[in-house]
Specification:
This protein has two helices and four strands. The chain is of the alpha+beta class. It has a four-stranded antiparallel sheet, with helices on one face.
C-alpha cells in the first residue's frame, strides 16, 4: 500500500549567481543570493517534484552544492543563520 505524499520545504544551493533566464527554469521557487551561490527555496508537493528540480539542475549543467529540507515551513519563513528545529 502506498503512503500518501506530503509537501515539504527545501533549500537547494547551486554554485554561482543564476541569471533571470536560468531562474525561469524553476517556477514556484524563490531565489536568494548567498555567499556567491544561489539558494532556491520553496515547497514542493512530493518527491517526484524534487527529483524534477534536481534533473533540471543537471540538465542545465549547474553544480548542486547542497540540498536541505527546511521542514514543513513555507518558503521565506526560515530564520537566517539558524536551522529550524522540530
Amino acid at each position: 500500500m502506498n503512503k500518501p505524499t506530503k509537501s515539504a520545504c527545501y533549500e537547494i544551493r547551486v554554485r554561482g549567481q543564476l541569471s533571470q533566464t536560468l531562474l525561469g527554469a524553476f517556477p514556484g521557487l524563490h531565489a536568494e543570493i548567498e555567499g556567491g551561490d544561489t539558494l532556491l527555496i520553496g515547497t514542493l508537493p512530493d518527491q517526484a517534484a524534487l527529483h524534477g528540480v534536481l534533473a533540471q539542475i543537471e540538465a542545465l549543467c549547474l553544480e548542486l552544492v547542497e540540498l536541505r529540507s527546511c521542514g514543513g515551513a513555507p518558503a521565506g519563513s526560515r530564520v537566517r543563520g539558524r536551522r529550524r528545529q522540530a
